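Private note to self, pasted from the team thread so I don't lose it. Backbone tokens:
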């Protein structure tokens, strides 16, 4: 499908398969989307199991494409990572989340902690700590009301650089969570060395925690281990009362999942906090 000069279709070769065509198209659209500001941030409540109330929220990016509609992050985050677009996108999400949280906290409701997903590339970029510091200053957000969610795969490469960055972030006063715990390759010893605040137990373990003995054992062990290390445990993807009861019994500190709420646009999330919804 060759079109007039300068058009992207000229890049196509007969041997290019459908998948790479789709990918190319997606990458071009993704670049445009950043310029056109087609992204939105949704917020999903994080709930304290002791009080049953919201103590924070995870920011989750959404892409509102003019023709395709809502595109889920599972479809474009991996490509954004590969192409480096995750850096401008991730930085944008972080800034929005800080602006939003400053607003919510100024409403005089209980202070909320906003979590932001940080990709490996973003974390490793030079000037990342400075960017966090600048963003906190610009948005006026109290550092301990920002939590960075870092996946364990970060922890594998370049340990001393990571340790240094983690230390600087901790000195700034921001919180750190290890995301999707149990799915990557991290060594348990990193948990202690990085002195993270929260361990997020991946939803793949929670999904059938009440029916699968192995997952039940893993979740039980992860909660017990985080208690020993004095790290908070948060279970992701909690959907049923049975899962909730299981986690409560074992002393899990916090949950996130459809049982309480799906991720919501800012206005709807604000209504939830105003209602003072509890579990
Ligand atoms: P994640 O960080 O593990 O985020 C949790 C995902 O689980 C979200 O999917 C959320 O909607 C979903 N979820 C929450 N509760 C439940 C539940 O009870 N049941 C089920 N089945 N799912 C639940 P989402 O929003 O589609 O995001 C997918 C992934 O995309 C995220 O996984 C994260 O890895 C990535 N992502 C999202 N936003 C960002 C971002 O701003 N930056 C980066 N780097 N990654 C992001
Ligand atoms: Ca996350
Ligand atoms: Ca997660
Ligand atoms: Ca995940």
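Design output:
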């Amino acid at each position: 499908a060759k079109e007039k000069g300068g058009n992207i279709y000229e890049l196509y070769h007969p041997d290019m398969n459908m998948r790479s065509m789709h990918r190319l198209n997606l990458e071009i659209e993704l670049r445009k989307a950043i310029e056109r500001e087609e992204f939105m941030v949704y917020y999903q409540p994080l709930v304290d199991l002791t009080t049953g109330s919201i103590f924070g929220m995870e920011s989750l990016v959404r892409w509102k494409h003019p023709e395709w509609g809502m595109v889920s992050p599972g479809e474009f985050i991996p490509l954004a990572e590969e192409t480096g677009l995750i850096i401008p996108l991730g930085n944008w999400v972080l800034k929005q989340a800080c602006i939003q949280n400053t607003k919510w906290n100024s409403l005089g409701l209980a202070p909320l902690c906003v979590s932001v997903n940080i990709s490996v590339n973003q974390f490793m970029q030079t000037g990342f700590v400075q960017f966090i510091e600048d963003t906190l200053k610009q948005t006026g957000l109290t550092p301990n009301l920002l939590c960075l969610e870092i996946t364990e795969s970060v922890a594998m490469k370049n340990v001393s650089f990571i340790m240094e960055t983690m230390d600087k972030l901790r000195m700034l006063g921001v919180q750190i969570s290890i995301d999707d715990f149990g799915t990557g390759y991290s060594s348990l010893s990193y948990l202690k060395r990085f002195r993270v605040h929260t361990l997020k137990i991946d939803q793949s373990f929670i999904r059938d925690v009440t029916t699968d003995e192995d997952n039940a054992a893993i979740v039980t062990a992860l909660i017990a281990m985080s208690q020993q290390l004095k790290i908070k445990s948060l279970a992701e993807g909690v959907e049923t009362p049975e899962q909730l009861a299981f986690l409560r019994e074992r002393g899990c500190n916090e949950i996130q999942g459809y049982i309480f709420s799906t991720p919501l646009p800012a206005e709807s999330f604000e209504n939830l906090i105003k209602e003072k919804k509890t579990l």
